[in-house]
Amino acid sequence: MTELAIYDMDRTITRTGTFTPFLIHAAMRLAPWRLIFAPLVIVVMLAYVVKLIERRTLKEINQTLLIGGKLPLVRIRPITESYADFVMKTNVHQGALDQIAEDRAAGRRIVMATASARLYVTAIADRLGFDDLIATNSIYGIDDIVTAKIDGENCYGPAKLRMIEAWMAAQGLSRADCRIRFYSDHASDAPVLAWSDVPFAVNAHAKLRRMAQSRGWTIVDWGL
């Protein structure tokens, strides 16, 4: 039996979301003049809230506004590294670090499954000691040019479960031969929580807390 411990990232491991702060962090170092587009970023977020655009479109537009539609990977990599250092110093729950250490000590394979962009999450996952990463992927052009366009699905909601299952298939892992723990803060991860053997509602907002109480999922708070 293979033991997997799968973690969401934003507001599960971290205290706050990481995508927009990453874009601001990158804009300040790549092209500070792009911060004049910050009001448009807010408009795009409002368009998502009222369901005029989908989540992947929000990400693609805001990344284009703040850091550009195409960037050489060699320019962005040092920025993803400095951002990961910033996240580790300021934005990680100690309870998450403790749980990751406990799962590792128990011999579990530690996997991150996040809607955030692999572009910057790889450096964070490395610092946290994750064995594997499932994340939203970017389309790359020739000569390692990273674009704002998402490759495949945005790793969110039901798509996250599909991407976890695809990763398991690629790794040669049968669901029947795995015992899976899953940690998440948000109701959008209900498909993965229901699919897992040991679901944890972590730092849960009201909707997920109600769902966890009704379904008997363990509720924990790493923010205390």
Task: Tell me what the structure shows.
GO terms for molecular function: hydrolase activity; metal ion binding. This is HAD-IB family phosphatase. It comes from Sphingomonas montanisoli. InterPro entries: HAD-like_SerB, HAD-like_sf, HAD_sf. The chain has 224 residues and is α/β, with parallel strands linked by helices. The chain is built from nine helices and eight strands. 48% of the residues lie in helices and 22% in strands. It has an eight-stranded mixed sheet with strand order 2-5-4-3-1-6-7-8. The protein is globular and about 50 Å long.
Annotate the secondary structure layout.
Layout: E1 2-7, H1 19-30, H2 38-49, H3 55-67, E2 70-72, H4 73-90, H5 94-105, E3 109-117, H6 118-128, E4 132-141, E5 145-151, H7 158-170, E6 178-184, H8 190-195, E7 198-202, H9 206-215, E8 218-220
Parallel strand pairs: 1-3, 1-6, 3-4, 6-7, 7-8
Antiparallel strand pairs: 2-5, 4-5
Helix pairs in contact: 1-3, 1-4, 2-3, 4-6
Q: Which tags fit this structure?
A:
224 residues; globular; 8 strands; alpha/beta; 9 helices; single chain; eight-stranded mixed sheet; Rossmann fold
Mean pLDDT: 96
* 3D shape: globular
CATH first level: Alpha Beta
Strand line-up in the sheet with most strands: 2-5-4-3-1-6-7-8
The CATH topology annotation reads as Rossmann fold
What is the fourth-level CATH superfamily? HAD superfamily/HAD-like
The first-to-last residue Cα distance is 33 Å
Biggest beta sheet summary: 8 strands, mixed
What portion of the residues fall into strands of 2 or more residues?
A: 15-25%
- Number of separate structural domains: 1
Please state the second-level CATH architecture: 3-Layer(aba) Sandwich
Transmembrane segments: 31-50
GO molecular function: hydrolase activity; metal ion binding
InterPro entries: HAD-like_SerB, HAD-like_sf, HAD_sf
Protein name: HAD-IB family phosphatase
